Amino acid sequence: MKIQLSDHFSYSRLMRFTLPSIGTMVFTSIYGVVDGFFVSNFAGKTPFAAVNLIMPFLIIIGTVGYMFGSGGTAVVSKTFGEGDPARANRYFSLFIYFAAALGVVFATAGIVFIRPISVLLGAEGALLENCVVYARIILAALPFYILQFIFQSFFVAAEKPQIGFVVTVLSGVTNMVLDAVLVILLPQEHKLAGAAVATAMSQVVGGVIPLFYFAHKNSSILRLGRTAFDAKIILKACVNGSSEFMSSVSMSFVSMLYNKQLLKYAGENGVAAYGVMMYVSMIFSAAFNGYTIGTAPVIGYHDGAGDHDELRGLLRKSLALTGTFAVSMVAAAELFALPLAQIFVGYDASLTSLTVSGFRIFALSFFFMGFAIFGSGFFTALNDGITSAVISFLRTLVFQMAAILILPAIWGIEGIWISIVAAELMAVVLTGIFLVRKREKYHYS
Prior knowledge:
Helix content is 86%, strand content 0%. By secondary structure, it is mainly alpha-helical.
């Protein structure tokens, strides 16, 4: 039975509707992890460290798609809730065209300036050359990467999250197959480039298929068509999505800071160990992000329709589900810390030991992470981009920067792993304060 944005959502209906979005985000993270597995085990420790060093920058410029996806979905969903589908489709088309154009501009600039950017991040020698080779290939596919991001959100708004999941699977399989072929079979000096080509081609698949789907007649409520430039609505989407943009940019910036601290306290091994934790964290946080993306159009629709009872129920059910996910994730992370480390860096005993000990501390952050992610996304869906941005800004930048600069001075490298836990805990407290203070304005109390 088809689930529509206007439906009443029980726990089971909510899970059925959001499961494809969760699967989409988790699978996207998994094939990113597979990329890291092949680079680490077949290209070597230095190329693996190079990927982890330059990846935060690549994520920052790709986050434009995430911003227009989350922020634009809130605008489009609310417009549907207000009963104006024609206007909603014009907005949808504008967001897609504008984001793709930005992708071309950013890709060109990135390719030109990637070497000085890599130096700024601390790369030198072989590490620097590996960063440049990998990044330039990835940047060539940046417009498709941005489209892949934005369509992940809009498939949900189109009431077709299952198609978004299928596209993600096709993109992921492309990456995995090409990784296995190119990284394993190419000569040692070209293995890193092969991994980059595999990732770039997967992004092309993830961006082009939805473009064709929405450009032609389809069974969803969204269709690409003619539109007109509207600076005001572009700004509205940017403000709405600023929290998601800030979150990704801040997390990437903080990752660079983590890498600099790790180079100081543990050298290249520290960067590699942190890379493993980031890959696993990507999968776990992807489940929270996927659930938030899946619920956002529903929240936006019912807010636009003025259905406050449904809005209240969605918040209550979402907090309960987030808590259940959180406990399960911490348990899984503690149980599988060693085998996960061995998958990536089992060839180096000291690196494996460092990764396991750090990950057992780092994993405690999953207790708190989901609540802050959902809280920020909840306000984005309500078109309250300012509140959402404040939560994301403090959570992903201010709290983490303070922790990563202060705690290692007290506890050494253990302080680096504790930093993420402390930052997520502070973010949950902040999220709770905003949910309480905004309850009367949005009528979900």
